[in-house]
């Protein structure tokens, strides 16, 4: 048997995914859940800004599994690029 990691432990770019220690796989999702809840409260109560807390909390929610974490981070990156393109178009159209 070889010492190389199995094929299931590769991300979309073909690189091997590093697994987090157990304490990080427990603490990060709990922290992410708290941040998402605070972000939702921030949408209701205007004192706390909700959007940045949700953007930070969502990737932390999925830190228990490396493949899910990479997928969520990729989705958030694409959403950010879409928002930036939209804002640039609006700025040019003015």
Structure report:
The protein has 94 residues and is an all-alpha fold. It has helices at residues 22-44, 50-61, 66-93. Helices cover 67% and strands 0% of the residues. The longest helix is centred in the last third of the chain and has 28 residues, at 66-93. Mean pLDDT is 77; it is low at 1-7.
Features:
94 residues, mainly alpha, 3 helices, 0% strand, flat
In short:
The chain has 94 residues and is mainly α. 67% of the residues lie in helices and 0% in strands.
Strand element count: 0
Give me the strand/helix succession. HHH
Low-confidence stretches: 1-7
β-strand amount: under 5%
Give the termini separation.
63 Å
The radius of gyration computed from the alpha-carbon positions, rounded to a whole number of angstroms, is 17 Å
Number of helices: 3
Provide the domain count: 1
Q: Overall mean pLDDT score? A: 77
The major beta sheet can be summarized as: none
Global shape: flat
Note the topology:
Blueprint: H1 22-44, H2 50-61, H3 66-93
